[in-house]
Design goal:
With 245 residues, the chain is α/β, with parallel strands linked by helices. The strands form 2 sheets. It has a 6-stranded mixed β-sheet with strand order 6-7-8-3-9-10, with helices on both faces. The radius of gyration is 19 Å and the shape is globular. The protein has helices at residues 7-17, 60-67, 93-97, 115-125, 130-143, 159-171, 189-204, 216-222, and strands spanning 21-28, 37-44, 49-53, 75-80, 83-84, 100-104, 177-181, 208-212, 225-230, 233-238. The chain has a single domain (18-235), classed as Rossmann fold. The termini are far apart. α6 (159-171) runs parallel beside α7 (189-204). The chain is built from 8 helices and 10 strands. β9 and β10 form a beta hairpin. Bound molecules: adenosine-5'-diphosphate. Residues 30, 36, 54, 56-62, 212 line the site of adenosine-5'-diphosphate. Residues 30, 36, 54, 56-62, 212 line the site of adenosine-5'-diphosphate (ADP).
Length: 245
């Protein structure tokens, strides 16, 4: 009050202003090839919604893979929550990855499992009991509007519904960060809007959202931060950005 802050409040503010994600001069090359990311420097605060744009092959997916530690930089450091991803012990990587909910263009659903089982599988792998899984999943399916499709198989679903299953699966561990890599690439405009609205809803609930997309209209409508990559280099990073200049 009156400009005097308690020490604990100051510490809290300091914590909150620390970025969740930092790329410090990050370069990455697959095998012995030329780097596909070059000296990338960026920081993202908890709760941001960031769109990554740029031509195919610019390095958007690679950048995301470095974040969820599926790949590692060849130069520079990727920090999540202040900690370099290279510090995470191999056996702890699956736990680390639960910070991230991943959604891809091709849904990656298991074809011989129902909607319920596809979402349940992520929890089974994490050692949840059947009882707890049964208790948890209806709520998650309701969030994405699929409570009535629980017993259907992927081949019985539309593209939009399939992507909503994959989003439900991404949400099971209540991830800090939703990584959506071209999530609407295979969807019609209506399904695209549904998925985008869900991503925005997750963001409102506090999730940090990283979206890689070629959907110009979506990015322009969002009015959120845009980071543009070209040949592995960040060429633009704007709050309230647009798809192209
Ligand atoms: P974007 O997501 O922007 O389309 P990517 O990160 O997928 O870009 O690809 C960046 C570059 O890295 C491309 O030239 C691509 O061919 C190459 N690349 C991507 N994945 C691999 C891989 N697993 N092995 C070798 N090269 C790869």
């Amino acid at each position: 009050m009156f400009g005097i802050q308690k020490k604990s409040d100051l510490r809290k503010e300091e914590e909150m202003s620390k970025p969740l994600i930092v790329f410090e001069d990050v370069s990455m090359a697959y095998d012995e090839r030329d780097p596909v990311l070059k000296n990338v420097a960026l920081s993202i605060q908890e709760g941001e919604f960031v769109s990554f744009v740029g031509p195919s092959g610019a390095g958007k997916s690679t950048l995301m893979r470095l974040l969820y530690a599926e790949e590692f930089s060849t130069k520079g450091t990727v920090y999540f929550g202040g900690r370099p991803t290279t510090d995470i012990k191999r056996r702890l990587l699956p736990y680390y990855r639960r910070n991230f909910g991943l959604v891809f263009q091709d849904f990656k659903l298991l074809p011989n499992k129902t909607v319920f089982e596809n979402v349940a599988f992520a929890l089974e792998v994490a050692g949840w009991t059947t009882k707890n899984i049964k208790r948890e999943i209806p709520g998650i399916l309701a969030v994405v509007g699929l409570e009535k499709k629980s017993d259907m198989y992927p081949y019985q679903l539309s593209g939009g519904e399939s992507q909503r299953v994959s989003l439900a699966r991404a949400l099971v561990h209540r991830p800090h960060v939703l990584v959506a890599d071209e999530p609407t690439g295979n969807l019609d405009p209506k399904a695209t809007r549904d998925i985008m609205n869900l991503l925005l809803k997750m963001n409102e609930f506090g999730a940090t959202v990283l979206l890689a997309t070629h959907a110009k209209d979506i990015v322009d409508d969002l009015g959120k931060r845009v980071i543009a990559l070209e040949e592995g280099v960040v060429v633009r990073d704007e709050a309230n950005g647009r798809y192209s200049l």
